[in-house]
Specification:
This protein is an all-alpha fold. It is built from 15 helices and four strands. It binds heme C (10 copies). The site of one heme C has 18 residues, from helix 13, helix 14 and helix 15.
Length: about 325
């Protein structure tokens, strides 16, 4: 976890930060009020809310910003957030810049960086609040910030650059681009995908977000879900979803990762063990082991003679290892 830098703290004196916080509080209040109460326009902060000897900044509109930030303004015309500029729905029409940067009248006069909020310089939680004033509880699951990213101060802006990489940089969508972004911090996971048996991420056919929701989820490990609460694996491996008349218990109780390593391994079928029998014997250890002297076994199923190669390849007989609709012994 060294490959990323935390956006907060960099170079803002404490004084200025306190000033920011004081000035931003009314901004959040008014933005949230506008958002939830549906008032016609986001109200400029009222003087009563601001610091004692300090007139609060007011909204001036994006055209004012254009005068000095022509490049950013022009690039913004193609940004997905341009919708904020043109649609009344978000309460910031004609002043989209200030939906994220807060009211800008003071800064437009002074041109001082300390008079305008830059999300990249806020603490992660505060920066996320700016984004979540619009993106909270969206159907895409954006906004569930309980995941380990939010808990570990990986803010929205660590993955979404609003201006830096042009309109296509706001969110990666191609599998290869998503993988590159995730790999930039999770180098060890990316290394697993270089092993012989793994999903086709290096080829750009699949991406990390096919299995993980970077915005958090109800499952451990930020896993994507299928049909509500089932593991996201079943979105693609639907044939294994069941329900089967005869379930193999660990699929329900333990999940796929008990037997498989989806990030990749040296073992065929991405199994946890090089040989299938050792996967099985971890739980069915009461079967006599290959070296056992007791041919008939002591515990059922006594028919298994583990010294005979015939019985070592479990899935030759127990073919429907993920569940069967016809046979309790998972034979077919
Ligand atoms: C009169 C010119 C002028 C106007 C108008 C103006 N800015 Fe700036 N802005 C500047 C200058 C100069 C800087 C400082 C650049 C630097 O130091 O690198 C700056 C810096 C910024 C920064 C970076 C602050 C930081 O912490 O690094 C942001 C964000 C910003 N402006 C947003 C806006 C927005 C939003 C508007 C419209 C409400 C706006 N500006 C209007 C001149 C202006
Ligand atoms: C959706 C939120 C959002 C909107 C809308 C937005 N910005 Fe930004 N802006 C940011 C964030 C976040 C940063 C920090 C750097 C980054 O992530 O690209 C930033 C950084 C900046 C900077 C600092 C220099 C830089 O490029 O890093 C300037 C200047 C700026 N914005 C101006 C504007 C202007 C002008 C507009 C309107 C045309 C605008 N912003 C609209 C979120 C926004
Ligand atoms: C004022 C409301 C508002 C704020 C604040 C806001 N957004 Fe958005 N965001 C939008 C709208 C509107 C869209 C476009 C949705 C659409 O196209 O349907 C959007 C789209 C996006 C997308 C999707 C881009 C794509 O290519 O699909 C991302 C990512 C995003 N925003 C991130 C952020 C981040 C990060 C922040 C905080 C720095 C932020 N937003 C702040 C309103 C907002
Ligand atoms: C760890 C990286 C990461 C973080 C942190 C992150 N996102 Fe995303 N976000 C992504 C990726 C990757 C996508 C593209 C997903 C896709 O194309 O399926 C995305 C997509 C989106 C979209 C587009 C809608 C969609 O589902 O395609 C929005 C809006 C968005 N993010 C907003 C946010 C907001 C707001 C935050 C902070 C609360 C945030 N994101 C934090 C990686 C991240
Ligand atoms: C800016 C760095 C950064 C980026 C980019 C990033 N992550 Fe993370 N991720 C972290 C940190 C920090 C943690 C928490 C510590 C850990 O578990 O390694 C984490 C944790 C996770 C976890 C573990 C969840 C858990 O609860 O155990 C998953 C899964 C994950 N990230 C997936 C992704 C995916 C998918 C992407 C790409 C969309 C991504 N990350 C991009 C920094 C990042
Ligand atoms: C085929 C599905 C799948 C894909 C693709 C996938 N993961 Fe995972 N990942 C999992 C499963 C399953 C777990 C274990 C989750 C749990 O129960 O905690 C996991 C765990 C993790 C963890 C936490 C534990 C650890 O191993 O460090 C991180 C971080 C992570 N994945 C990141 C990534 C990243 C980054 C990518 C893309 C390069 C990725 N994953 C692609 C399925 C997948
Ligand atoms: C986006 C679709 C997708 C998701 C989600 C997915 N897989 Fe896969 N999986 C595939 C594809 C496609 C293959 C075939 C890969 C190949 O041919 O290289 C595969 C292959 C496999 C294999 C190896 C099959 C073999 O014959 O070697 C296993 C085991 C597996 N997946 C388990 C999982 C598990 C466990 C999860 C959830 C953690 C998961 N998959 C999630 C698409 C997916
Ligand atoms: C009890 C251990 C176990 C569990 C749990 C398990 N698998 Fe398997 N899986 C295996 C074994 C063993 C094989 C290899 C079968 C063989 O040798 O032909 C396999 C093979 C596969 C294959 C390769 C093709 C096929 O259909 O046989 C896929 C895909 C797969 N598993 C996905 C999953 C998914 C998704 C889950 C979770 C829903 C899961 N597995 C849970 C043991 C398990
Ligand atoms: C994580 C533990 C676990 C692993 C690994 C595992 N099993 Fe199971 N298996 C169980 C449990 C628990 C049951 C249910 C036992 C019961 O209902 O009495 C079961 C049931 C079975 C049954 C059906 C027994 C019956 O008649 O009800 C067969 C056959 C079976 N397993 C074969 C295998 C094979 C072959 C493997 C290796 C590919 C394997 N198991 C791996 C835990 C496991
Ligand atoms: C040659 C075919 C064959 C092979 C190979 C085989 N089994 Fe079986 N297995 C059977 C038969 C037949 C039964 C049913 C026995 C009965 O009903 O009394 C059975 C039953 C079982 C049961 C259910 C026992 C119970 O309590 O009813 C388990 C668990 C099991 N086998 C696990 C394994 C494991 C683990 C392996 C690999 C080490 C394996 N089997 C290899 C044929 C085989």
């Amino acid at each position: 976890m060294t490959a990323f830098s935390l956006p907060h703290s960099a170079g803002i004196p404490t004084q200025a930060r306190r000033y920011h916080a004081a000035r931003l509080a009314p901004f959040f209040a008014s933005a949230l009020f506008a958002f939830f109460a549906g008032s016609a326009q986001a109200q400029p902060a009222s003087p009563a809310q601001a610091g004692a000897n300090d007139q609060p900044a007011t909204y001036v509109g994006s055209e004012t910003c254009q005068a000095c930030h022509e490049d950013v303004f022009n690039a913004f015309q193609k940004n997905p957030h341009h919708l904020v500029e043109t649609s009344a729905k978000y309460k910031f029409d004609t002043k989209a810049c200030e939906s994220c940067h807060g009211p800008g009248s003071k800064h437009a006069e002074s041109t001082s960086p300390s008079d305008i909020s830059n999300p990249a310089k806020l603490k992660p939680a505060a920066a996320d609040k700016v984004c979540l004033s619009c993106h909270l509880n969206q159907p895409t699951n954006v906004g569930r910030i309980t995941g380990s990213h939010a808990k570990n101060q990986v803010s929205c802006a660590s993955c979404h650059s609003i201006h830096a990489k042009g309109p296509d940089g706001v969110a990666p969508h191609k599998a290869a681009d998503v993988n590159q972004q995730c790999a930039s911090c999770h180098g060890n996971v990316w290394a697993s995908f270089q092993q012989p048996f793994r999903h086709k991420l290096p080829e750009g056919v699949m991406s990390c977000v096919d299995c993980h929701n970077p915005h958090g989820s109800f499952q451990p490990g930020n896993m994507q879900t299928s049909r509500g609460s089932e593991p996201g694996c079943l979105n693609c491996h639907a044939d294994l979803a069941g329900p089967f008349a005869f379930q193999h218990a660990p699929l329900q109780t333990e999940g796929c990762s008990t037997c498989h390593v989806p990030h990749g391994t040296n073992n065929p079928r991405m199994l946890t063990r090089a040989q299938v029998q050792y996967v099985c014997l971890e739980c069915h250890g009461n079967l006599p082991l290959p070296t056992a002297s007791d041919v008939n076994g002591t515990i059922p199923p006594a028919i298994h003679d583990m010294r005979s190669p015939r019985f070592q390849n479990c899935t030759v007989c127990h073919q429907k290892i993920h569940g069967s609709n016809v046979d309790r012994g998972l034979f077919r």
